[in-house]
Amino acid sequence: MPDNATAATPSAYAYPLLIKQLLHTPFVQAPNQEIVYRGQVRMTYTTLRERIARLANGLSRLGARHGSTVAVMDWDSHRYLECYFAVPMMGAVLQTVNVRLSPDEIAYTINHAGAEILFVHTDFLPLVESIKGQLETVREFVWIDEEGSEAETHSIPFAAEYEAMLAASSDHYDFPDFDENTRATTFYTTGTTGLPKGVYFSHRQLVLHTLTGMAALASPEAGQRFHRGDVYMPLTPMFHVHAWGMPYIATVLGVKQVYPGRYIPNRLVELVRDEGVTFSHCVSTVLHMMLGCEQARAADFSKWKIVIGGSALPHGLARAALERGIDIFAGYGMSETCPLLSLAQLPPGAEALDDEEQLRLRCTTGRPVPLVDLRIVNENMEEAARDGNAYGEIVVRAPWVTQGYLNNPEASVQLWGGGYLHTQDIATIDPTGNIQITDRLKDVIKSGGEWISSLEIESLISLYPGVSEVAVIGIKDEKWGERPVALVVLSEGFVVSEDDIKRHVLTFSESGRISKYAVPQIVKFVDSLEKTSVGKLNKKWLRAQFA
Amino acid sequence: MPDNATAATPSAYAYPLLIKQLLHTPFVQAPNQEIVYRGQVRMTYTTLRERIARLANGLSRLGARHGSTVAVMDWDSHRYLECYFAVPMMGAVLQTVNVRLSPDEIAYTINHAGAEILFVHTDFLPLVESIKGQLETVREFVWIDEEGSEAETHSIPFAAEYEAMLAASSDHYDFPDFDENTRATTFYTTGTTGLPKGVYFSHRQLVLHTLTGMAALASPEAGQRFHRGDVYMPLTPMFHVHAWGMPYIATVLGVKQVYPGRYIPNRLVELVRDEGVTFSHCVSTVLHMMLGCEQARAADFSKWKIVIGGSALPHGLARAALERGIDIFAGYGMSETCPLLSLAQLPPGAEALDDEEQLRLRCTTGRPVPLVDLRIVNENMEEAARDGNAYGEIVVRAPWVTQGYLNNPEASVQLWGGGYLHTQDIATIDPTGNIQITDRLKDVIKSGGEWISSLEIESLISLYPGVSEVAVIGIKDEKWGERPVALVVLSEGFVVSEDDIKRHVLTFSESGRISKYAVPQIVKFVDSLEKTSVGKLNKKWLRAQFA
């Protein structure tokens, strides 16, 4: 009788989940499929495989070994795709440097990650020269010189140039097996306060994220799906959460891939047109810029599918995209979650719904992808009802969420609680699993035992004639915990009273849409509202000001 | 500077790949989706979740614990689906009893697996009564009495009846976390010689098989795909390789599922029609029977997709299916591989191919699914060229292949070699990754350093006028290793000489289709050819006879 209580022992035949294992099928099934860079460089998947091996050999010569960190400063390119595979496949860690940080922050992240080798695109030479003296761990610099420029003015002692290094290296490399929990990638989040924090993902996590993302994106009944016949172009930077992990999915699917270099709206639209792009992902701002650019006027977007993430998908943008024939839908995740948690794909039978309901569904936070254990909970980790009304903070378990911040145990502790990663997002879930984020935890107002969404009250007040801008914040209250206060900027020429606003909000309370606690205690008229550097309401500042 | 060489340590937040994790999304996204049994029992996914918990509670009361084995003898049913989840989710092992084995073999497998609890459908009562005395490990019997019958005649001391047990149990059960390498399922292969051998799969393996199968099946450009809008009905028994793992995939997709009970062709066709079934999988024989039954004449199969596995998909059956509007394609795998290894889905752009080429592609062995490292090799594990001509044995690595036979180290050793599982199938691979199995390793003829496919030579000889049946076997030869011998049965009234056959085969050698070594050394005319009990050529017997 067998000893079933013992787990099946991992044997010599155990199969670790390594990024190299993602490459078995694409090079077999789509060997002649194209990878295109800016419409100028074209290569096949067979060439990609060779270049991955060349890059690994080149890096080995520069001293990269298992556990080394290789940092990259490049635009979205086939080179970046090569790094996504070659660096982790040799057992090293790929640091995708966030080139939008300040020079000091960039130096900090490279030092903090302990990068030994730094790839620098010509466009970032001045920046790297300015921080060279601060870099403590970089031993070797590799120049990415796609223009054949001389870069005479630079003073960086480059060990190699990217293409020359590949040309001089063998196209064969025996990528070894190792522990699937080995760190594969790292990058830094842009916190609004404090130093950037590093998140990191293992081979196992990236393989599972790829498979599940592939399964979730391919399985809708019709539309909104990423499949083998698509042409893929990322529109979220490759330095940011591995471009949402999509280049890994695209490669396993064996689709044509298009990398656009630096984001210039007219050029992006030309690439969609000229290369026949059918699947992309971006933040709202990028799509908004693209739809508004000159080249967009005559462009045919009717075969283009786009996942929007990073923040809520505005109904207005979604409607504008749908009018241009774009199959648009929202996705949800964060840097700490690799990122994919949920997708707002239409469920089977949705073609029978009216246009407004379809639009609403496309703009929700979506439904969890497989393996994601997503709940909305109160402070005691008790689940809120899934009735579309009850609020809670989104907490998640998934095989691909970061287990903490790199060398930052204090911040890591705050990220986790009760065995779940805490997203700080407040949401409802309806009975069919649709999540709707209503607020950030730090902005939600807790009054009389209820959670009031500051965003929802702002949205209602903004409907009142003459209201130009509004911020709703919570102020401490002995009896109720917190009470909502509305700060309102009126348009010129309007006369509105505090009672007008309160009565207006009260009607929504009477109709049952919002709690009676949501009616602002105080409505204060102000000349302007403090914003952050990226144009969002600075609620932290406002709360301090009106405490 | 971080210690990157150290793997990211699995922490308290590690997420084991457990079968329970497959259930997060379906009950959220499709709570009211239907599961149907024989058109008679209907329940929702929400009810399924409750019944899984009830079953686990019922089994706990019967003493099942982590490491126990629970064996099931049932037809394809919602009950079996409940067992697929509840038994492994509590940490126990599900043995799916192969009810087609002989009574003695069934008793052997139950004892060998060490099953403590045995579920018995009323139809199997006589069988279980006949072997009751042989069962060494079963402590408790559970009766599956769907007819409300009294089964008065039986002498088995049932501890419970399935439905009564569920009704008496709580619908809440806290399924624990445990090591993902814990054994989840076991079943026995029907070897042609010797005792049945047990294969077994862990939670990790089944989760990875589910995700990858889901991704592979959903991602074709058009057609041949299993997606959220489908209605699923298995047509390979649930006791055999978990019905190819498809019920797990169907559940994660959240589709309507239809379980047919015992396979009766007319009833199966009625279920396809009445329940709107759109996705199934079976061996050729089952589809052949269904297409030939009375109910099939007027049936509309135009929305039905079918994967055919178990053995090669005959062109004739594929053509007949296509003529009825069925979207048919082959899959490849074996009991030892969980089973999915490859799928013969049409590649993007295939709609431009002519019908015959599409038919050919649908009938190939297919292309590997993601994560499957599949090679064709010679005896020294050297890879054969992927040119569509060179032969080799298919060897595989994949995260879900069994690591050996249960408590059978000798057979396990034979299964593996050079780090790969050896399938005993001989195949070619063309430059676009299409595998074509040409023979079984034990039947291939090794002559003059080349591998000759006995199946291919048989196929060529069968084209010669008057040839009714033919078997090609290898006989030992001092100079060449082996030489092919053809055993030919002629149709009545035909006069054919040995030279006629040799010259016929030689023409294919001259045209380059086959090697010159493939021309039979001897052609022997016989009255009949020995067959196995399932009607296949008994080449083992023939080789011994003509050695």
Automatic annotation (TrEMBL), chains A, B:
It comes from the Bacteria. Keywords: Ligase. One of its GO terms (molecular function) is ligase activity, forming carbon-sulfur bonds. Residues 456-536 form the AMP-binding enzyme C-terminal domain. Coiled coil: none annotated. Pfam families: AMP-binding, AMP-binding_C. InterPro entries: AMP-bd_C, AMP-bd_C_sf, AMP-dep_synth/lig_dom, ANL_N_sf, ATP-dep_AMP-bd_enzyme. NCBIfam families: PRK06187.1. This is Long-chain fatty acid--CoA ligase. It comes from Paraburkholderia monticola.
